[in-house]
Amino acid sequence: MPQETLKRISTATHHGCIVCGEGNDLGLNLEYRVAGPDMVCADFECGSDFEGYNGIVHGGIISSILDGAMLHCLFSRGLTAVTVDINVRFRHPLVSNRPAKVSARIDSRHGVLYFLSADITQGGRIAASAKARFFYKPQLDQ
Questions:
Q1: Rg (alpha carbons) of the chain, rounded to whole number
Q2: Has residue 140 got a pLDDT over 80?
Q3: Contacts of 66 (CB under 8 A, 6+ apart)
Q4: Where are the domains of the chain?
Q5: How many angstroms from the chain centroid is the CA of residue 40?
Q6: Alpha helix (H) ranges present in the chain?
Q7: Where is the Thioesterase domain positioned along the sequence (predicted)?
Q8: What is the pTM of this model?
Q9: Which CATH number fits domain 2-140: 3.10.129.10, 3.40.50.300, 3.40.710.10, 1.20.140.150?
């Protein structure tokens, strides 16, 4: 059920998204999957179109991937929300044209605020991690 809920909301609300949109031919087209209670992940590979420096994925793209993964955690619970703030830590370069994985989880909730975290791994090490707050907005899925 959480996987179907995630897919339904993502398709309905993010069709043109640069990270996950099925309707965006220029995007990454990440397919998130439920990886456990309040957790999602996706395998991906960024081509050279997403580079900043040669051979290295642009930090803005990395931030977008982390943000999208955290949002999809909320989608898996049937929730829509907007990012309040996000803090990204870049640990190692994310090399383009090589497999990577993004994982995200819901850490806690305080009223209408959800606290989430995510990381991107490549070659067995964390390339980037993030923590973010999301504001629950139920009308976004209508």
A1: 14
A2: no
A3: 86, 88, 102, 104, 118, 119, 120, 128, 129, 130, 132
A4: 2-140
A5: 9
A6: 2-13, 59-76
A7: 54-121
A8: 0.95
A9: 3.10.129.10
